[in-house]
Design a protein that fits this description.
The complex is a heterodimer of chains A (about 190) and B (about 475). In chain A, about 65% of the residues lie in helices and about 0% in strands. Chain A is mostly helical and about 190 residues long. Chain B has about 475 residues and is an alpha+beta fold. The chains are: A mainly alpha (about 190), B alpha+beta (about 475). At the A-B interface, α1, α3, α4, α5 and α8 of A face α1, α2, α3 and α8 of B.
Chain lengths: ~190, ~475
């Protein structure tokens, strides 16, 4: 058995390999349903809105949201993750977007961003909410944790269970955050 | 509905086409590069091959060293370094238990090691249990722990409990000073040493019961809403004419058939709303009939709370009602007061439970002249497991500094005795815990706000991080 494994590892060493034909030799049950070889345009078409809006809801900044947007899709290509389903792929993209947003906040770069903020804003046309006193504007005023939960719940239609899985939090915690976020939202919107 | 409005408003913010095109180009380039690397080096398998080679090399080296030290006679006698003394090998067999008396002695000794008892106390009983089904002839010796008392008087042998894994708060609180955050009449204060406090089983993971709260079914919610409306002052005839309205969350299709809608469902009768967790909310909008103005806000609030509690005491009767006030700053920078009436009768433990979990709260308008809302919760602690020994404030602070805490503060910050500003013993309300248990909430001042992108209120208010440390002695907590 050990010898067999050793030969298996040695076989492709240094050789030109056709990844596609190799994939065809794998047992059916081991084959990923979705892989990096998906059509890039289709993936972007399907998930660009989700990734961008989530990044924007988290960062409240268009430049940051666009940076995160590119990072997430480049990670999608470079990561070796195989997806079992479209839902799995969606959850993966949401998780990576949240992580990239957190990373942005903790990076040294952002601490010095203030001096560059004007230049960045000039480079990207500023985003204007249609209704500055609407629900989206009120959501953006919520604390970050609440913003995230509300966005995933309201915009992405995720269930408590799905949100708790993505955020790695207990359902009860998500539920509490959602309840409090909704209470704050209603208060901000004048009890409507 | 908020949800639909939010979607419509966000949809009006399209992703820039240039951004999508630029990202697609970068992705194509990245994928092309990745395929070239994969075809040429097959990196994962290359790593695997190197690992196999290293494994062979390490094994060969280990066998050589083993033989050089002549350790073949007893592998458990390992040498560490050239001059190191050999470590005594472990005994290959446990000492034989020659008699029931010897076994009892060994059992008692083992228990004593974990639960030291004063010399004057002797274990009351050692029971012998045997399992005829096993056919091994082995017997278990079980020490009855009831006879053991620790020197400070609490009973050892309480079952271990699990503690808070994740706090459900925001992690950050803004205030002018930490005293604002804690209640003005909290029955517990930091100089007080509570030696033991009760712990209750809530079984959140089984029943969804939050700490200190009931779990009502739909009929229970409706019945409570109707009864509360009558207690509040509606006549039975009036209530019978009112419709019991179901209110769903801003989710699903609004028909109440999705899980989330069922979970967040509430029932209303007139101005009374009851939620599944037993929370009762009454919209009031009432000014007192007499002038209750005080010099300071706290005095006004105290007068208003006393007046309205007298007026509505039948809703939530207490023996010794006491008003406690703390203030919170909303995310928009405005200050509001949280006013609670709790029952200060009974012993300290009862008072602490009442203060934290079973109270009636009042919401006043900004000018403190009108009562807007009354809230309270149907109180259900669950089954009491026992009175558990409590660590001191100093010990809680040490646990914090040792990193044994739970927090939602979203970044690393300095934790030291200087940054700890206030410690409060609490029972967490609305927590998704399997045990309703005392916790220390430690307020830590966060000064590096700008570094952590917290600009809100930073000019006028201080920011405090909330850190939670279990108050139950760690001996009784699962690791």
């Amino acid at each position: 058995m050990i010898l067999k494994k050793f030969l298996f590892f040695m076989q492709p060493f240094g050789a030109m390999r056709d990844i596609d034909s190799e994939k065809g030799n794998e047992p059916f049950e081991n084959r990923p349903v979705y892989s990096r070889d998906d059509d890039i345009n289709e993936t972007l078409q399907r998930y660009s809105d989700m990734v961008y809006k989530l990044a924007f809801a988290r960062t409240k900044n268009q430049s940051d949201a666009e940076d995160i947007f590119q990072e997430v899709f480049l990670k999608y290509i470079s990561s070796g993750t195989s997806f079992e389903s479209e839902e799995h792929k969606k959850a993966w993209l949401i998780t990576v977007t949240i992580n990239q947003s957190k990373k942005l906040f903790s990076s040294a770069w952002i601490r010095h961003r203030a001096s560059l903020a004007d230049a960045a804003e000039q480079a990207v046309p500023p985003l204007q909410l249609a209704d500055e006193e609407g629900v989206a504007a009120a959501v953006l005023k919520l604390p970050a944790a609440y913003r995230l939960v509300i966005h995933l719940f309201y915009y992405e239609d995720l269930s408590l269970k799905q949100i708790s899985g993505i955020l790695n939090k207990k359902e009860g915690t998500v539920k509490s955050q959602l309840n409090r976020a909704r209470a704050l939202l209603k208060k901000e919107l004048g009890g409507t | 509905m908020l949800k639909e409005k939010y979607k419509i408003e966000l949809k009006q913010l399209p992703v820039r086409e240039e951004l999508i095109r630029a990202t697609a180009r970068k992705m194509e380039r990245k994928r092309a590069g990745r395929q070239v690397v994969q075809r040429t080096f097959a990196p994962r398998r290359l790593v695997a091959v190197i690992s196999v080679i290293c494994l062979f090399a390490m094994t060969a080296t280990g066998v050589y060293a083993y033989q050089k030290n002549d350790l073949t006679a007893n592998p458990s006698t390992m040498m560490v370094g050239e001059d190191a003394a050999p470590i005594e090998p472990l005994p290959t067999e446990q000492p034989a238990l020659t008699s029931p008396d010897k076994a009892k002695e060994t059992t008692a000794s083992a228990v004593e090691q974990y639960f030291p008892v004063p010399e004057s106390t002797t274990p009351s009983e050692v029971q012998v249990k045997s399992d005829p089904q096993s056919g091994t002839g082995k017997e278990e010796f079980v020490l009855n722990m009831n006879g053991f008392l620790k020197p400070n008087g609490y009973v050892a042998g309480l079952p271990k409990i699990s503690s808070l894994q994740e706090a459900a708060d925001q992690g950050l609180i803004f205030a002018e000073h930490p005293e604002e955050i804690v209640g003005s009449k909290n029955p517990w204060f930091s100089g007080m040493q509570a030696e033991k406090l009760p712990v209750y089983q809530t079984d959140w993971s089984q029943s969804g019961k939050e700490t200190g709260s009931a779990v009502l079914d739909n009929e229970g919610m409706k019945a409570l809403a109707v009864q509360t409306a009558i207690d509040f002052g509606w006549t039975e005839d009036q209530v019978s004419e009112l419709e019991v309205e179901a209110s769903y969350a801003d989710a699903g299709n609004g028909n109440g058939d999705s899980d989330i809608e069922k979970e967040l469902l509430s029932y209303s009768v007139g101005n009374v709303t009851v939620s599944r967790n037993g929370e009762v909310e009454i919209a009031v909008s009432e000014e007192p009939e007499e002038d209750l103005q005080g010099v300071a806000d706290l005095e006004k609030i105290q007068n208003m709370a006393d007046y309205f509690y007298d007026r509505y005491r039948t809703l939530f009767p207490m023996q010794t009602p006491v008003c406690s006030v703390n203030s919170v700053w909303d995310f928009d920078g405005s200050k509001t007061y949280q006013v609670r009436m709790y029952d200060a009768s009974g012993d300290l433990a009862q008072q602490i439970l009442s203060y934290n979990l079973s109270y009636m709260s009042f919401e006043f308008d900004e000018s403190l002249t009108m009562l807007e809302t009354i809230r309270y919760r149907i109180f259900d602690l669950g089954e009491k497991i026992g009175d558990y020994p409590i660590i001191s404030v100093k010990e809680a602070e040490k646990e914090l500094l040792d990193g044994n805490y739970t927090t939602n503060v979203p970044f690393e910050t300095e934790l030291s005795t200087n940054t700890i500003k206030r410690v409060e013993l609490i029972y967490l309300k609305d927590a998704d815990l399997n045990y309703c248990q005392p916790m220390y909430r430690i307020l830590v001042e966060i000064s590096d706000l700008e570094e952590n992108e917290i600009q809100e209120f930073a000019d006028t208010l201080k920011c405090y991080g909330t850190y939670y440390v279990p108050a139950v002695h760690h001996e009784f907590l699962h690791s």
